[in-house]
Amino acid sequence: MALSFMTTIVSANDGNKDTPGAELKYLGLINNQPIFQLNLNSDKEEYFVISVKDQFGETLYSEKVKTKIFTRNFRLDTENLDDAMLRVEVRSGNKKPEVFTINRNTRFYEETSINKL
After folding, report:
1. How many CB atoms lie within 10 A of CB 23?
2. How far is CA 89 from the centre of its chain?
3. CA-CA distance, 88 to 41, in Å (whole number)?
4. Whole-prediction pTM
5. Helix, strand, or coil here: 37?
C-alpha cells in the first residue's frame, strides 16, 4: 500500500466562518516518509468523500465520513511511489470538489566550498 493513515481526531468547531472547507498541509518527515494532514471543516455535520489517486487516476485510498470537523494524517510510502504525482479530492454534497496535488521530486545536490585559513 502506497498510502497509510496515522490518526483521526474529531473536535468541536469554534464557529469561524473563514475556515476553508478542506485544507492539506505538509507536516514533515517521519522515517524519511512525508506526512500530510488533511483538515475538513463545515458549518454543519455532512458527508465528505476523500479520495487519493495516482497520476493514472487509480484510486489508492477512499473514505466517506460524516462529520463537522475532521483531521487525518497521511504517511506516503515513498519506496512504492517513487516520484509519482498524487491527487487528493474532497467532495461534499453537490459542491465542486476541492482538489490538491502532491508532487514528489527527488533531487541530489553536490556543493563544494573553498575557505581561506
Report:
1. 15
2. 9
3. 16
4. 0.71
5. strand
Contact (CB, 8 A) for 62 and 51: yes
**3-class DSSP state of 81:** helix
Give the DSSP per-residue string, 101-116. EEE-------------
Which residue intervals of the chain are DSSP H helices?
Answer: 78-81
CA-to-CA distance for 94 and 12, rounded, in angstroms? 24
- HSE at residue 85, side-chain half, CA atoms within 13 A, is 8
Report the alpha-carbon distance of residue 67 to residue 70 in Å, rounded: 6
Domain 3-103, CATH class in plain words: mainly beta
Distance of alpha carbon 89 from alpha carbon 74, whole angstroms: 14
Spans of the chain, pLDDT less than 70: 1-20, 82-83, 105-108, 112-113, 116-117
Number of other CB atoms surrounding residue 46 within 10 Å = 15
CA 36 to chain centre: 5
Cell digits of residue 26? 505538509
- What is the structure's pLDDT at 1? 38
Of the candidates 90, 93, 97, 86, which has an alpha carbon nearest to the alpha carbon of residue 50? Answer: 90
